[in-house]
Amino acid sequence: MSNRIDVKKTYKLFINGAFPRSESGRTYEIKNANGVFIANLCLASRKDLKDAVVAARAAQSRWNKASAYNKGQVIYRIAEMLESRRAQFVDEITVFTGTTKIKAQKEVTDCVDRLVWYAGWTDKLSSLTGALNPVAGPYYNFTLPESMGVIAAIAPETPSLLGLIDAIAPIIVGGNTVVVLASTKAPLSAMSFAEVLATSDVPVGVINILTGKKDEIAPWMASHMDIDGFDISGLDAQSHGAIRIAGAENLKRIFRFKSADPGRILAFLENKTVWHPIGL
Amino acid sequence: METPVNFDYAPAPESRAIVTIKPTYGHFIAGKFVAGRKHFPTINPATEEVLSQIALAGKAEVDSAIAAARKAYITTWSKLSGKERGKYLFRIARIMQERAREFAVLETLDNGKPIRESRDVDVPLAAAHFFYHAGWADKLEFAGLGTSTKPHGVAGQIIPWNFPLLMLSWKVAPALATGNTVVLKPAESTSLTALLFAEVCQQAELPAGVVNIVTGDGSTGALIVNHPGIDKIAFTGSTEVGKIIARAVAPTHKSVTLELGGKAANIIFDDAAIDEAIEGIVNGVFFNQGHVCCAGSRLLLQENIVDEVLEKLKVRMAKIRVGDPMDKNTDLGAINSKEQLLKIQDLSRVGESEGGARWSAPCDFPKKGFWFAPTIFTGVTQAHRIAREEIFGPVLSVLTFRTPQEAMDKANNTPFGLSAGIWSEKGSRILWASQQLRAGVIWVNTFNKFDPTSPFGGYKESGWGREGGRHGLSAYLKGVGHE
After folding, report:
1. Which of A120, A165, B121, B172 is the most buried (most CB within 10 A)?
2. Which fold has domain B265-444?
């Protein structure tokens, strides 16, 4: 064995396709399962959230306009990138969380497969959830799902990577952009996942990832007037009431999810009905 | 020699003999009418005549209605197959059709809307909503992705005064079809058709407690919203009250749908069929006295057609017949209440003081009742309150645009997102604009059309959820995997 000194990675935020530190300069310590110091993670501030929402809003129109085929390929590309770095993620999850290698392998496999599953949804949503409505008159009338806008999410603590992907992917499938807070205790694989995103084809600003404290950032997300929806699956039940009250100011659509299913995608889509007369 | 031709309409009053209005009404709880303790008057807004005394439900009545709904849910309604539930709804639809004229006359007397609208729009659509949802009751497993086939339980439903019977049908029909039981509160000023609907439930032999109707004001509504025995809240009304409800139920497990306010843009491109667009503008904002959450109250005109459109619009507006709602020729009836009239007058004064130029169609009002002439404001900017706030009356704000993109930006520059209108003869532009507009209902070369098969509801602060169509069912079914 050599006496070489490791080159350690600095973990930062992922906003608008870049990796900035928190503007607040605040950090918090992450230790591994054995209590050994690993890294100082950014403690995202309200200003960092604001920057991320600005980036997500700016990216939303273009991402929404991308064809369903294109969106599907972009999400599939994330799966490809993650697959190619399987070993790294298995290693990180094993070391940082103290779980077994078999469990870590299973989580990464699930992550890749889940992304592939979501990728295939982009070009099926409107045919399965849209409708041509048989109105009682000479009108052509259809209803289609449409993106809601900028959605915030609190990823669950565990499983930290699969939970993050289950927060992000269903939101972006339908043309929304996302600002997500990663697991507070195990954020390292989330920030490595940001590197996957940065080297895949996801347009800048479509996915923004913050690290920090839930009890700080969740209320800021809830009261932010330019966030349209909020996935609070990663929050403890006792905080849901206060979050929903704060979110009522702009009638945010706030949901908590228990599984990965089509309902999770539809929750953050609006339905638009269009009427046109039929006649000569 | 030309003989002057007089095109004035002779009075054509609808008879009110078909309706019997009782001097006093109680609540409809567990299949029976229960006498109220306190009462308040309901008036005909076109004459200020007191029509009847309506009961004011307090805690005791709300408790008893919710208990009746729970009992009916547990003992009968949840045990009934979808097929049998549906039959009750079909019965209700048929009885509403049979008693359609009675409903229309009563609605016009209590609400002030023209009999032509209550007879041709409100009542037929209300019956159609029951007929449509009746057929869903035994087909919920095909209702789509993201929902289960399980109802919430007891639904508390609070409806507005602008389409009293129609809003009742939007609420009650899907709730019953999906297997929920109901406690409904009609608006304070328009309870009568809901109470007539209670009679229909009796005639249909709907099991006791499946539909309960308590009358009252906002305090009664608050009792329903805050009651622990309610599983689902459905509300149609103002965004302000919608937010209060959203906060009130936030710490609970109650599911909520909200149909709230709007400030719809009605966009006229320069290639539009102008004469058709004029009709669409008039229908968009003067239908139902402008008491429509999805009213096209912001007219966006492309700059090069402003003069032509405004000139034609004023000619057309001068022909709107304002007056006795019971007259079959009347286009614009009475404002629903003195309170609402004061709001419209107040916001119109603000429109003038902020620099808008006001023009009202000349009209003679009846001596009594609440009236407001069809009115437009020109020279309006996006910052003016009459371009931002829901006025809920026959008042149109006119704004202009040069490019299609500017039209979209102005149309979307509002916290609301309920509806929008597009007038153009160019297919690609229509489809582009209908994608750009952030609103739940887009009317292209038409406006203010409704149908039970067609999902209706808003983006942004115009509400949560949809009503009508397959999408509307999910409001009354438990979600799969999320809450």
Report:
1. B172
2. Aldehyde Dehydrogenase; Chain A, domain 2 (3.40.309)
